[in-house]
Specification:
Strand 4 and strand 5 form a beta hairpin. About 10% of the residues are buried. Helix content is about 20%, strand content about 15%. The protein folds into 2 domains: about 70 residues, no CATH class; about 30 residues, no CATH class. The chain is α+β, with helices and mostly antiparallel strands. It has a 3-stranded antiparallel β-sheet, with no helix packed on it. A two-stranded antiparallel ribbon has the order 4-5. The longest helix is centred in the N-terminal third of the chain and has 12 residues.
Length: about 110
C-alpha cells in the first residue's frame, strides 16, 4: 500500500498537512509491486510517483507498506490440487498471467 492510512506512521511533521487525511490506492500498489517482484528471489522497490501514482497529493507525507510471503512452487501446486495424490506424479505447469496450474499425468484426478 502506498499512501497514508494512519497518522501514527511517518508523522514527524504534520504541521502543514491535513491531520485527518487518509488516502491510498491499494489495488494499484499491489499491481505495481507484483509486476516488479512476483516470482523473483530478490526484489528492490523504489517508490517513484510516476510508477506508484501519488494518491494523496504532493503536500501529504506518504508511506509504503507491504506484506509478503515466499512460497515454494510445489507448495502452490499442493494447495491448488489437494485431491490429486503426490504418489500419482502431480506435475506443476506455469501459466500466463502469474497463475499456476497443476495436472496429473493422466485422468487420475478426474
Amino acid at each position: 500500500m502506498y499512501g497514508r492510512t494512519s497518522q501514527r506512521i511517518c508523522n514527524y511533521d504534520l504541521t502543514n498537512q491535513i491531520s485527518s487525511k487518509t488516502c491510498a490506492n491499494i489495488e494499484q500498489s499491489k499491481f505495481q509491486t507484483k509486476q516488479r517482484c512476483h516470482r523473483k528471489s530478490t526484489c528492490q522497490i523504489l517508490i517513484d510517483n510516476t510508477i506508484y501514482i501519488d494518491p494523496c497529493g504532493s503536500n501529504i507525507l506518504k508511506h509504503f507498506e507491504i506484506h509478503y510471503r515466499c512460497i515454494n512452487f510445489n507448495e502452490i501446486c499442493l494447495q491448488l490440487f489437494h485431491n490429486c495424490s503426490l504418489l500419482k506424479d502431480l506435475k506443476c505447469i506455469e501459466k500466463i498471467q502469474d497463475d499456476y496450474s497443476c495436472q496429473c499425468p493422466s485422468t487420475i484426478c478426474e
